[in-house]
Amino acid sequence: MSIRLAVITGGNSGIGLAIARRLLSLNSDELQFRVVLACRNQAKGAVARHQLLSAYPDALVDLVELDTSSVASVERAAAALLSCNGGIDLLFCNAGAMAIEALDIGGIVNGLLSHPIAFFESSEALRQQRGLVTADGMGETFQTNVFGHYLLINRLTLAMREGGRVIWTGSAASQLQFTHDDYQHIKGDKAYESSKYIVDQIAIPLDQRLKERGVRCLVAEPGNVCTNFLAGLDVPLFQYLVLGVFYFIRFVLGIARFTINADTAAVGCCFAALAEGADSRIKYHSHATRTGKPFVAQYPLSHNKDTSAFLVGKLDELVEQISGE
Fold first, then answer.
1. Global pTM exceeds 0.90
2. What is the DSSP letter of 175?
């Protein structure tokens, strides 16, 4: 039997847990996935592990503590993962955070009146906190969503098996307020979007680097999905409203990117991880039919060579500073 090791950051809930479920559902007499849930909250991780083992009693599911907003935590997690026998086949860079301060009433009114469909495809309704910096001195969202994973990849490269893949959970990212001067987006209020834009920009050069070891780097887009981000608002009525609108847009208007639930949203990540001939120049989008049947659409990854080179250079500088090189 062939055993493939898959590490999933943020694997205790949402899309990360859905990825784990999809991989374990593929287990057979010939192939078995061993899943490592790399997550910050170990209590929630234990609950997720119990859920997976209840559904798949013979599965191999482990936990590793990982907080991508902490360099020390990434280093400890990497050391633990390096001790895994046989090497790593799949690394899902899925953990992410959006520091929501409150609902943006002005953004909601403007969005609904001027571009209602695009409004629900975006995060315009959410006002994000500015100026958040980690104990390591980096932008909090930037470190959580981007640099923590970049450092983890750097530390685990030698443990990745030939034919392995690194899969980033992307977003419908744009250049919203992204600037070279504030690439960590500490001063702006679109830190989440900026971080996902960075993911798109670094994927191709990182893929070119990893290909030297027979490893690929890819980006998947989960679509519009109701995950745990909105729960932090503690406004249940708004959450139900968003859910209802999402179903209306998908069923009535037939807009396939409204995947809505985590299991459907995870299909793009799993496709990128397992499909033959995957290409870093393509972004793998999770979509769903009007009735919710999932499928994957492939679109060119938006990529600017100059911006990519700038960002990879900055990320490498941070790695070198941490490594004392």
1. yes
2. -
> Closest Cα to residue 133, out of 191, 47, 93?
191
DSSP 208-270: HHHGGGT-EEEEEE--SB--TTGGGG--HHHHHHHHHHHHHHHHHH--TT--BSHHHHTHHHH
* pLDDT value for 319: 97
Nearest-5° Cα angle at 81, 76 to 87: 155
**Which run of H or E residues covers position 38?**
strand 31-39
> d(Cα 270, Cα 109) in Å, to the nearest integer?
37
Alpha-carbon span 221 to 254, nearest angstrom: 18
The pLDDT score that the predictor gives to residue 186 is 95
pLDDT digits (tens, 9 = 90+) for 189-206: 889 999 999 999 999 999
Closest Cα partner for 62 from 53, 72, 75? 53
Q: Provide the percentage of residues in the chain whose pLDDT is more than 70.
A: 95
Helix (H) or strand (E) holding 209, with range, is: helix 191-210
